[in-house]
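Predicting holo structure, adenosine-5'-triphosphate bound.
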Amino acid sequence: MSWEHVSSGKVRDIYRLDEDRLVLVTSDRISAFDVVMAEPIADKGRVLTALSAFWLERLRDVAPHHLLSVDVPAGAPSALGGLGGLAGRVMVVRRAEMLPIECVVRGYLSGSAWAEYRRSGTMHGQALPAGLRQSERLPEAVFTPSTKAEVGHDENISFDQAAELVGVETAKLAREISLELYRRGAAWAAERGIIVADTKFELGFIDGELAICDEVLTPDSSRFWPVEGWQPGATPPSFDKQPLRDWLEETGWDKTPPPPALPDQVVAATRRRYVEAYERLSGARLADWPPTAGGATAEADGGADGGVAYAVTGDAGAEAVGGADGGVTGAGDGGADGAAADAGERR
Ligand SMILES: Nc1ncnc2c1ncn2[C@@H]1O[C@H](COP(=O)(O)OP(=O)(O)OP(=O)(O)O)[C@@H](O)[C@H]1O
Ligand SMILES: [Mg+2]
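Done. Tokens:
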């Protein structure tokens, strides 16, 4: 089996196994203010992979998903040797026809949504109640899509603009799936002391069905706030890159490459937050990931021999969506179910 390089993003390297399957390799690279730092954050790729696999399994009744296996297929290119081992950072997925939008859901008013609200009292063009404060919980979670910019920042768009890009029916289904994923994920996280302020999903068609792709509810695709640090009117310390961003701000760096070299303690603090997010949300130890370390099967066809197999196209299709909302209510005692997401602006 050979891996054919398809593309490399700031964080992931993507390879093609065959017509139907891709390998997503998540590196330990970290970006802040859209610039990739020179120093890797040890274990970050494993955290993002483990957390995505955790959520995809847990939320599989909401919609089908792309994950086939987290075992490392044979034939990895030697160029990937520099990543410090592939085990635990690889997802073999069904190749999907990706929607050209980012499916952002916001439960709290932050980031670009806060900026727009402050300017015009709206969020993605939609009116919001007056008098909301920064980081305030929204009356209900809102689907706030954005474009997927090839270069530069993603742009916030209205639901109608999203419908123009993907068709009304698909946009409605994407909204329904995204809101349900958010509500369920946010309720789960709130019980574990983490507010999902916002998050971004990427959906695509697999065998004609809209499926959950990419990474899911990770510190890179979401704003995670510790429940105890949240207070409307201020920006809570985020659960992920906050120590890094704080430090970068203090240096007075102008946010153009090259970034300053990161001190060891900033790298270590960042790593701790990623690992803690995973361990709190999943209830598992990162040390136990991947589940079959060493014994992985080379087959990525969903065979369950030794490896962990993920049912791809779920048994429950779109009709399962919207069946169970409610997840969010009663989530945190602070009343925090919500989450909203900011796609490109922070990464
Ligand atoms: N099942 C899938 N089929 C096809 N493409 C996918 C699938 N899952 C994820 N992708 C795509 O793979 C890419 C993931 O790579 P990565 O996150 O590194 O890059 P990015 O998000 O495009 O850019 P960056 O992270 O640099 O801002 C995304 O473009 C995503 O849309
Ligand atoms: Mg991405």
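The CA atoms of residues 44 and 191 lie 24 Å apart.
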